Amino acid sequence: MRKVISFSKAFVPSVIISGVLIVFGLVGLFTRGINYGLDFQAGFIEKVRIAPTAFSLTYTGSKSVTVEQSANGIDFVITSVGDDNLTRSFRYAEVSTVGAFRSAVASIEGLSIVAEAPDSVALASVFPDSQAFSRLSAVPYRFHYIPSDIAPISSDDVRDAVSGTFPDAAVQVLGAEADRFFQIRLSDDGTDPDASVTLFKGLNKTLSDAFGEENIAVISSDFVGSRLSSSLARQSVWLVLTTLVLIWGYAAIRFRWDFALGAILAILHDAIIMVSFIVWTQMQFNATTLAAILTILGYSINDTVVIFDRIRENMKFHPEMKITELLNLSQTEMLGRSIITTVTTMLAVLSLYIFTSGDMKDFALALLVGMVSGVYSTIFIASAFINFVGKFRKDGGRIPEKKAKPVLSNSGELV
After folding, report:
1. Same domain, 168 and 267
2. pLDDT digit string (tens) for 296-327?
3. CA distances from 62 to 65, 109, 110, 138, 294 (A)
4. How many angstroms from the chain centroid is the CA of residue 110?
5. How far apart, in whole angstroms, are the C-alpha atoms of residue 376 and residue 384?
6. Domain for residue 395, yes or no?
């Protein structure tokens, strides 16, 4: 017979440890605060790459020429009044280097190219400023590249450059070394009706002054107003509360009120532990992080329900056992299942953490913390509450079996 592990001996120490962790998280919440992302805080966010110019294009002809870069190459769309559109395409497979591209575009009348990168640089590695107007004119339209011998610019360098103008700027470096970019987030106090334009111009001027206008390539920019961010925050709170109420209702119908309340305490514990981790690591709290918390709520309640099912089943097979003994037996029987399920899921999440970056990396890290907390809370928090309540119940904490309704036999007797 399998040896029953006395999990109940760790109920009180586990509750104390969880209490300390929660207090530690609350201290961090009031001293450090939550690093809100753009989803929940009004402000401006820009993704930018700081890299030298590979080549610049200008056009002085009478027609209209726009340039577009795709995964396959660089296209020029030439239009004029009364004529059909003409597209000149330069595919990477055919024009593979900057030098070859410089020679090829010489055939477009009125187009000039000034190459600053070596001719051997791969054309597929260049990238434009997404905020620049793609219609060519006498103003240079720049393509940038990352030289292999250039010293990388760190997030501290960018933070130092913008902190004078924007003291509250948050800077992150994301992506692999060859594709690294900076994500800069600026908050908005809501007093400027044209904050999106003001912040965009101010940030790009600051970056241009620090690193040179010819070295700045904006990947994307976005702005969320205070009204929208407040609305998202309220909706998120209601979403979490609704989830908790639905989970409590499901557990109460399937088991009993104290089992349901134990499950709610367990998932609340997991949510608070995750928020505490986010606070102390200053991980950005955005829609992706909220999704991770909701995912863990579902994962944790699933694990808890499996344990509760086994407890209810053992109540039928072992009517002589006390609630503490039933909890120990049920958790011992389900321990292997819990470990295997958690470890296999964590391996998948771990690969997501290792091979991704940005929001997905934070999402995976939050999931890892939540999964560990979920297993812990199922075994020690939910069960500790059931064990505590069971000591004060007349039925000893058992779930009574439903009595079968009496049935009359053909002779009129009760069966």
Report:
1. no
2. 888 888 888 888 888 888 888 887 788 888 88
3. 9, 10, 8, 12, 58
4. 47
5. 11
6. no
- Cα atoms in the 13 Å half-sphere on the side-chain side of 263: 32
292 within some domain: yes
Q: What local confidence, expressed as pLDDT, does residue 404 receive?
A: 47
User: Which of 178, 205, 224 is at the close of a domain?
Assistant: 224
Task: Give me the average pLDDT of each 10-residue run along the chain (415 residues).
Answer: 80 91 90 76 84 94 92 92 83 94 92 93 92 90 88 85 85 77 81 79 91 90 65 75 81 79 87 90 82 85 84 82 85 86 90 82 90 89 85 57 53 56
**Residues with Cβ within 8 Å of residue 160, at least 6 apart in sequence:** none
Q: Which amino acid type is present at position 122?
A: A
Q: Is 174 helix (H, G, I), strand (E, B) or coil?
A: strand
Do 194 and 285 lie in one domain? The reply is no
Residues 139 and 237 in one domain: no
Q: Are residues 338 and 239 in the same domain?
A: yes
| Residue 82, domain member (yes or no) | yes
- Asked if 370 and 322 sit in the same domain, the reply is yes
Residues 124 and 19 in one domain: no
Q: What is the three-state SS of 199-264? A: HHHHHHHHHHHHHCHHHEEEEEEEEECHHHHHHHHHHHHHHHHHHHHHHHHHHHHHCCHHHHHHHH
Residue located via tokens 């020690």: 380
83 and 96 co-located in one domain: yes
Domain boundary among 224, 252, 277: 224
Question: What does the pLDDT look like over 139-182, one tens digit per residue?
Answer: 999 999 988 877 788 888 898 999 888 887 888 887 776 678 89
Gap between the Cα atoms of 328 and 294, Å rounded: 29
Pick the closest to residue 95 from 82, 107, 85 (CA basis). Answer: 107
